[in-house]
Design goal:
Blueprint lengths: L1 H17 L7 H16 L6 H8 L29 H31 L8 H32 L1 H7 L7 H10 L12
Helix pairs in contact: 1-3, 2-3, 2-4, 4-5, 4-7
């Protein structure tokens, strides 16, 4: 059910861009991009909306993923948020790209598993090769996740220091940090 809606929205976005209409609500496109990735991760979507946005360079810029504070004004951040959001948004976008990659691999692995006939008895060799290949791909992805976390800690040190002091953040920043935070790297228990 999700995919037909995404396809229709993608056609609308593409037509608006082709006619040269400036998109005033980029944050809606970003929100749909985010929902598409969540749908992919929950196995209810294909992630094609997100993939096409990436391929055609149609993902809104970091400063455009929030609605304006007031209609008609292009200000997206409240005072006190400017120092937090640039790094936070870039980290969020990198995590979403990684989530898209994880979701696509999960989709591929589920499709492969569905195509595998039940093998038993003397025919365990093809099954063993399949399991080895599957295990290797999962290990490689796990390594990418670990390397990303290490890379992010060096490139976004302020973000990881914010996790240790969540009470000092403005409310919208706290919500964004809550969304972006990795459970395995979070030293505090963030309120949900």
């Amino acid at each position: 059910m999700w995919q037909p809606h995404c396809n229709a929205l993608l056609r609308i976005i593409t037509l608006r861009r082709q006619t040269g209409i400036m998109e005033h609500h980029n944050w809606i496109i970003f929100s749909i991009y985010l929902m598409d990735i969540y749908a992919l991760l929950s196995a209810t979507g294909s992630g094609s909306f997100s993939e096409i946005l990436l391929q055609q360079n149609m993902i809104p810029g970091p400063e455009q993923i929030f609605p304006p504070i007031q209609p008609g004004f292009p200000q997206y951040f409240y005072p006190g948020e400017e120092s937090h959001f640039p790094q936070l948004i870039l980290l969020n976008q990198e995590m979403l790209l990684l989530a898209l990659r994880i979701g696509k691999m999960a989709q591929e692995l589920r499709a492969e598993a569905a195509r595998m006939p039940f093998v038993g008895g003397d025919q365990d060799v093809p099954d063993a090769v399949y399991q080895m290949n599957r295990g290797t791909r999962i290990q490689e992805l796990h390594q990418v996740i670990n390397n990303s976390r290490t890379d992010w800690k060096s490139r976004y040190p302020a973000y990881f220091s914010w996790l240790s002091r969540p009470d000092t953040m403005p409310t919208r920043v706290f919500r964004a940090v809550e969304h972006v935070s990795c459970p395995t790297s979070c030293p505090v228990s963030l309120k949900y």
